[in-house]
Amino acid sequence: MHKISYSQYSTWKSCPLHWKLRYVDKNRIKDDNLTSVFGTTMHRMIQEWMETALYPKGYKYAKRLDLSDRFRDLFMEELRPTIKQTDGEGNTFYMCSRQDIDEFYSQGLEILTALQDNAHKIFPTENIRLYGIEVLLTAPIRKGLQFTGSIDIVTHDTVEDEYVIYDLKTSRSGWSERIKNDPMKKSQILLYKKYFCDEHNISPKKVRVEYVILKRILFASPHFTVPRISKFSPSNGTPSMNKTVVEFEEFLDTCYDMEGDPIVAGVKPTPSKDNCKYCAFRTRKDDCPVGVGT
């Protein structure tokens, strides 16, 4: 059984060769960075706060909690295994400086303070129960293939019998309109909605989706106040969800045969500045001789 994730799909859309190197050849390259470690830490901190404070004990209790020490502990826990790295020639180096760590830590505290101050707007609690944290998806999609994923947060309105799927996204300074209109950005949460509904036998009409965007840096505007945390809910009705599923199935048709085995014949790279910018293979000429930045 091959497990298919959204990450596989998005990697293939960006560059089929990258998909082959990573998911078929299992050529894993450690490419941790401070931004990814920060994102993981924020997810853990917010989910823990919601699970242990906001939903069981309410806004007043959750707001007055001092989260600084716990956030520091989680941040250092995530950093320790990755901060000291080795390059291709065996040289040891540090992923980031102490100043970088302090800067990200301070930005994280700003996000958490904004979350505590505005929790009633971001995560309503009246008649709402916390349905789950890291809700696992394991949906059979074709012979030999299973969609896998993990939804950050799901809540359930016990009066209206409605669900909300939340996806936390850390960002340097927020999402532009270009990013919000990127079909691939929206496809992740729409696929999660599709397979969540299928797996739990819930009508899609009873499920909404929201991205919660956590900004490290705020740029001042003379015209309006820029929020530290914003929400974005893409179109997620049946037509939008079905369109995303059709495009996802194009990936399945192209990359997997009738038995669920990967198809690698004819796989080619699609190098570009954007595609190669964060690719771990861009400097490995034996794997990818055409990557931008090699």
CATH topology of the largest domain: Lambda Exonuclease, Chain A
Largest sheet: 6 strands, mixed
SS field, number of helical segments:
11
Nearest-integer average pLDDT: 91
The CATH class designation of the largest domain is Alpha Beta
Oligomer: single chain
Number of E-state strands? 8
Question: Would you identify the CATH architecture of the largest domain?
Answer: Alpha-Beta Complex
Helix and strand run: EHHHHHEEHHEEEHHEEHH
Radius of gyration: 21 Å
Distance between the termini: 35 Å
Q: Give the amount of beta strand, in percent.
A: 15-25%
Shape: globular
| Helicity level | 40-55%
Q: Helix/strand/pairing class, anyone?
A: alpha/beta
Q: How many discrete structural domains? A: 2
Low-pLDDT residue spans: none
Q: What is the compact description of this entry?
A:
By secondary structure, this protein is of the alpha/beta class. The protein has helices at 6-14, 16-24, 34-57, 59-64, 68-79, 98-117, 119-122, 177-180, 183-200, 238-255, 273-276; strands at residues 2-4, 84-86, 92-94, 128-142, 145-157, 162-171, 207-215, 229-232.
What does this structure look like?
It is a single chain. By secondary structure, the protein is of the alpha/beta class. It folds into two domains: 161 residues, Lambda Exonuclease, Chain A (Alpha-Beta Complex); 92 residues, no CATH class. The strands form two sheets. Strands 1, 4, 5, 6, 7 and 8 form a six-stranded mixed β-sheet that branches. Strands 2-3 form a two-stranded antiparallel ribbon. Strand 5 and strand 6 form a beta hairpin. Helix 1 packs antiparallel against helix 2, helix 3 runs antiparallel to helix 5 and helix 3 packs parallel to helix 6. The longest helix is centred in the N-terminal third of the chain and has 24 residues. The protein is globular and about 60 Å long. The chain starts with a strand and ends in an 18-residue tail after the last helix. 28% of the residues are buried. The mean pLDDT is 91.
